[in-house]
Amino acid sequence: MITGTGSCAPSSSAGNVFFERLVDTTDEWITARTGIKNRHIISGETLSELATAAARRALESAGTEAAELDLIICATMQGDYIIPSMGCVVQREIGATCPAFDLNAACAGFLFALDVADGLISSGKYNKILIVCSDQLSKFIDYSDRSTCVLFGDGAGAAVVERGDSLRYIRICSKGDADLLSINSARPKSPFFVEGKSQGYLAMSGQDVFKFAVSAVVGSIKEACAAMGITPDDIDYFLLHQANGRIIDMAKSQLGQPCEKFLTNLAEYGNTSAASIPLLLDEQRRKGTFKRGDMLAISGFGGGLCWGTCLLKWAG
Ligand code: UT7
In which domain, by residue range, is 105 found? Predict the structure, then answer.
């Protein structure tokens, strides 16, 4: 069960008007087609600092000391270093002594980390695991490409996971595909490789990813409900990866659910990749949205392609 959450966003932010000066776009287009109004982007601080702050806040909200942790799993596409992993950086900064590693499931990172954590706790091997999800998409954005540069922000979210029965269902899925959504790794100069045209920028076939996202979210939530013998009506809140307000709207209508069950913070943060779900979860926990026993459906999707859904009874 999740016993604590934390998050941290960069202090600098850029509203839609900023992008009007950068590329051929308008606030109206971005708002209408995505629901995004603002995004927080790293300028002064580092991703490790955000991840560490989110981790500390999660530990504090769980009432847990770093020394009590059995494992740290960081979901990230890339931290400040290739080596050490973001997990090891966070471990050092919070003063933990447990093993730590990174996994990369792009925007679905929280679900993948939660499934791994749940498996290791259920097996009896570990009792307390810290999940930290942090991404700095601003490192990989071509700020002359209007179709992608307006979408993403940076951030970090974290959760402490402990033994308990509140995680009722979790399933993660992958379908290898580098055509719809990819970031080619930029390589340092060397005498041995011929430079290709990609220099580490995010490339996305927006409409195809949109269709994949709607069908992955709706399909996996229906599958989760069927497996638990419930219907979407029995879910109190849906927390979907914050990529596009229209994806959330289509999920709402295809699941036949009212607006107020779908929590969002997309307007303020844009798409923060792996951080998006734990950032939303933490904000809503701090607002006191959830009451004990509420059923949450959490669903993530993104590059890989990777996606997953869990059903969680809020333990409070
Ligand atoms: O977290 C990873 C998962 N990612 C996602 O889930 C993203 C999924 N995809 C999307 O959210 C949407 O497909 C986008 C927001 C990326 C694009 O929205 P769209 O409604 O699918 O637009 P489109 O790609 O079909 O483009 C429609 C038009 C094009 O112009 P033409 O060819 O019709 O003249 C684009 O060039 O909108 C144009 N366009 C823009 N116009 C103004 C694309 N980006 C912009 C922009 N400002 N920023």
Answer: 2-164
